[in-house]
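Escalated from tier 1: zinc ion holo job.
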Amino acid sequence: MERLRRLRTSPQLRNLVRETCVNVSDLVYPLFVIEGENTKNPVRSMPGIYQYSIDRLDEELERIDEAGISAVLIFGIPSYKDEAASEAYNSEGVTQRAVRHIKKRNPELIVIADICLCEYTSHGHCGLVRGGEILNDETLELLCKMSLSLVRAGADIIAPSDMMDGRVGAIRRALDDEGFINTPIMAYSAKYASAYYGPFREAADSAPKFGDRKTYQMDSANVKMAMREIKADIDEEADIVMVKPALAYLDVIKEASLRFDYTLAAYNVSGEYSMVKAAAMQGWIDEKRVVLENLTAIKRAGAKIIITYHALEAAKWLKETE
Ligand code: PBG
Ligand code: ZN
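Tier 2 regenerated the structure:
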């Protein structure tokens, strides 16, 4: 008889044969920064997540330090929005100031800048709009300007999440031309048009005012297309590629990890977080165990980097279980 239970008889033995371990160093924690002073706004749909004004960021940075988190993904939310997304590439914009603040206070913390226009446009779309259409090529120039201004502010990694075609190549050239040859690009390569982004749009004030994002984000039914998206970004010299969301797309993560020898990231998105929180608050699930199981599943599927709102708590739990 095949006695598989032999290797499960003690915690030590189970640890010894465990195939997948999530490390604190795998986790990226998203941060929402708003304008104004002395503000810490709870995001109603994401219990435990807040929008901070820059002067209140330090308390969160302290927790990040304490947890041993090594990277944050920064989302700035300007109060002024227009059709050209001007605040996205304003050197004194809220995101640029936040990046400068973080890098000054904690030079070692990896600051990843999300590159997209939806937090900055009056219509809430990820690109420029003309006659109800989201323009591709015209948007690229603004994404390049935004990337450059955030790298100049101190961002360590540029992460385009807009899903315009050709943006990775355009941003790479813009960075190289200005001498930033060592700034990596983490591309949101296979980003699906997902209902799981619902809570995020409250956190980032980035919901589209008309229509949806289905002409640029991917159809959730497609996996071959995801491989084409990832391949296109690799050909344009992306350093890290991403699948987003994570939990409903573990098959896509798996396929990408088998197919490409590139560092793979997965985004455990807002809706995935909020569902766990909601059930935990009702006492219906054991939050710690469910979160660690989810993160392990994402890593087991093949992602190395996991972007997650659970990062602070998960880091604490991971240290306990070590
Ligand atoms: C901006 C962006 C979104 C997310 C990350 N960057 C929202 C969207 O595309 O509508 C989603 C993150 C989440 O749900 O946690 N383009
Ligand atoms: Zn966007």
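The chain has a mean pLDDT of 97.
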